[in-house]
Design a protein that fits this description.
With 92 residues, this protein is an all-alpha fold. The protein has one domain (17-85). 63% of the residues lie in helices and 0% in strands. It has two helices and no strands. The chain has helices spanning 15-47, 61-85. Helix 1 packs antiparallel against helix 2 (61-85). The longest helix has 33 residues, at 15-47.
Length: 92
């Protein structure tokens, strides 16, 4: 009878590498979340028929951008680090 070969266990990425990549992702998450939130402010201004401000997406774009940036700064590194630490990573 044939012996079943044990596949080697997939190990997660080392913590130092994971943390470094997470720190790299924080500013990227801030700016990407901020851009998405600035677009959301434009949609909200259109739906609520808010008055237009000259030269900016909407009058309260800054509040949307800061909140969206903070959300993005927290979620993108968290998701990337979670994916790196999971045992079921795709083969490279």
């Amino acid at each position: 009878m044939e012996k079943e070969h044990d596949t080697p266990a997939v190990t997660a990425a080392p913590w130092a590498r994971t943390l470094a990549i997470g720190c790299f992702m924080a500013p990227l998450g801030f700016f990407s979340g901020g851009m998405i939130a600035a677009f959301a402010s434009k949609v909200v201004a259109y739906v609520t028929r808010a008055k237009a401000c000259e030269g900016v997406p909407s009058c309260n774009w800054l509040e949307f951008t800061v909140v969206g940036g903070v959300i993005g700064m927290l979620t993108l590194p968290t998701l990337v680090m979670w994916a790196l630490r999971s045992a079921k990573r795709p083969k490279s």
